[in-house]
Amino acid sequence: xxxxxxxIVEGFVLVDGKKIxxxxxxxxxxxxxxxxxxxxxxxxxxxxxxxxxxxxxYAVDHFNMGESERVPGLDASLAATADRVAxxxxxxxxxxxxxxxxxxxxxxxxxxxxxHPDRVRRLILFAxxxxxxxxxxxxxxxxxxxxxxxxxxxxxxxPRMLKATALSRMYGDPSRVEKGxxxxxxxxxxxxxxxxxxxxxxxxxxxxxxxxxxALPVVAEKPTLLIWGDRDRAVGLSSARxxxxxxxxxxxxxxxxxxxxxxxxxxxxCNRAMQxxxxxxxxxxxxxxxxxxxxx
Length: 296
What we know:
By secondary structure, the protein is α/β, with parallel strands linked by helices. It has 12 helices and 9 strands.
């Protein structure tokens, strides 16, 4: 293992004989961070050190993403991915953890809580992919076509400027995109097997969202903090209300001016919210209801 920051240690653990990359920092109750589609542990670079003052933080790269091993033919379903997260927790020695997750990673986290409820203490979900969101369905259908598959395979070869423009659209204010943010989403794209895995996720998107909808009642009693930017163009805020209706112990925090990647765009606001959530008594003991916050 090597350390590239005084507080952050990097390494690999074996799951089914294959390597999963992770970053670890801090002491205290474990907090596991799960990135979104085409993301990586790097996406949490503005959060890990802060959270490490309050928890032992683990940020992992899913198989076929980031610096983790590429596994040809890997089952890309939400259920299989959630089971691999549980196996990764075993490898890291984590019987239970708080889970913070983003976008597709949020869907994985909810499936993890449904399939392995004893492994999840509580959830923090940043604009999680969910069955109630209509945004992006046309894009999903496009990437399921022959031309869409061809186009997806060209993305790793696209000029950096085009990739940067695509990332800026995920922010409420493009001027907030910091240096180094883009690499957290693009560094692994050229590794053979990455795009194939993403396309496998996309192909079964509708099926997985249907299965997640069936699983949500199992997650309903899990203490959950939903965090959404009101300028999210990827997973619409309107779907948060329906998700909150089903997740009976969920609180919703809306960040004015933020887009789809609020924890990168407004890390100070999100870090404080995460700290308060993981440090406060469980809702059964004492409520926590951040309905809205100011980004000023």
